[in-house]
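Hi Y.,

Following your request, here is the sequence exactly as I used it, all 147 residues.
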Amino acid sequence: MAKVSISEAARLAKVSRPTIYKMINSGLLSFTSVVNKGKSIKVIDTSEIYRVFGSGNPDVSSKSDVVINTGEFTSVNSSDLQYLQQQIALLKQENASLKDAVSSREEHIASLKHAMLLIEHKQQSEQVSAESVVSTKPRSRWAFWRK
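Below is the corresponding structure, written out as C-alpha cells. Let me know if you'd prefer a different format.
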C-alpha cells in the first residue's frame, strides 16, 4: 500500500497530528523513517491506518464504485432535441463549406507559387541571355587595353 506523511495520516484517520504521534509513541501505530533531502521523515503505511482506525473511516467506507440501475430514464424534451440536431446539422454544413474554402485557397496559393517560380526562371534566363550578348561583342585587336 501507499505510504503517507503524519499530516496526511491524520487527515485520512480524521484525528489530530498529536493523536498520531501518541499512537506511534505507545506502539499502537507503526511507521517507517525515510530520508528526504537530508531529513528523516516518518511515513505511515495506509494499511496501518486502516488496521488501527478500522473501517469506521468515512473516507474509506463511503466511496463506492458500484452503479445502481433503477431502470428509470430521464425524459428528453423532443423540441430541444430537434433544435440541437438542427444545430448540429448546420454546424456540419458550415464545417464542410469552410473545409472547401480552405482547400481552394491552398490550391490558389500553390498556383501562385508556381507562377512565381516561372517568373523567376524567366528573369534568370533573360539575364543569362543578356550577358551572353554582351560577352560576344567583337573587340578590335588594336584596343586591347580597353575592356
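The chain has a mean pLDDT of 81.

Thanks again,
Q.
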